[in-house]
Amino acid sequence: MIYEKTTVLIPIKAFSKAKQRLSKTLNPSLRHILAIAMAEKVIESVGDLDLKIVADDQEVIQWTKQHNLDLIISPFENLNKSLQFAFDQLASTKTTQIVVVPSDLPLAKNLSEIQFKTGVNIIPDKDLKGTNLLSIPLGKSFKFEYGPNSFRLHCLQAKNMNLGPNIIRNKNFELDIDTPKDLDQIINCPPWDFLLKNK
């Protein structure tokens, strides 16, 4: 179930700084192209749900405006601080549930079909370390803990707040691209095989 007054937040860092851990595999131009292509894929997965991009980088801000997407401009480079800022900005709106989705999920699709429960819902990455989707009720003092072991930290916080969590395994959202090993899982498959052809 997707709540009627749900807002999806997609934080996007500077395209020019994205995926530095792929520097031995992809040149800066390809990493830039990959970052944009994955962001577009995640945005497409949102469908008709209310969507806001969270960004502090000027290129990303201009790109968002060119695509006529709603934007929350963060004064912070730090991801957790940016999300908290966006969370606070939505406090005075009709939104009741926030869904945070990173912009580097190349297989993302059909977000609106995910069955959420009341409280906190989390889709972890394939290794059960990262948080690839986080759904939380607005109005709760939830602290974003993106970084090392974010899945465990978000689960612990939800448990301490009596908000679950409801853990969902979903292959469309389990793969994020951080390392060459992650990249190997998509580089031979369209539309991502363009990376192999241009390496």
Question: What this model shows, in words?
Answer:
This protein is of the alpha/beta class and 199 residues long. It is built from 6 helices and 7 strands. It has one domain (6-198): Spore Coat Polysaccharide Biosynthesis Protein SpsA, Chain A, CATH 3.90.550.10. A hairpin with a 6-residue loop joins β5 and β6.
List the helices and strands and how they pair.
Elements: E1 6-11, H1 28-46, E2 50-55, H2 58-66, E3 71-73, H3 79-89, E4 97-100, E5 121-124, E6 131-137, H4 150-160, E7 166-167, H5 180-184, H6 194-198
Parallel strand pairs: 1-2, 1-4, 2-3, 5-7
Antiparallel strand pairs: 4-6, 5-6
In short:
By secondary structure, the protein is of the alpha/beta class.
What count of structural domains? Answer: 1
- CATH fold name, please? Spore Coat Polysaccharide Biosynthesis Protein SpsA, Chain A
What is the CATH superfamily label? Spore Coat Polysaccharide Biosynthesis Protein SpsA, Chain A
Tell me the number of strands. 7
Identify the notable features of this structure and list them briefly.
globular, seven-stranded mixed sheet, alpha/beta, 6 helices, 199 residues, 7 strands, Spore Coat Polysaccharide Biosynthesis Protein SpsA, Chain A, 30% helix, single chain
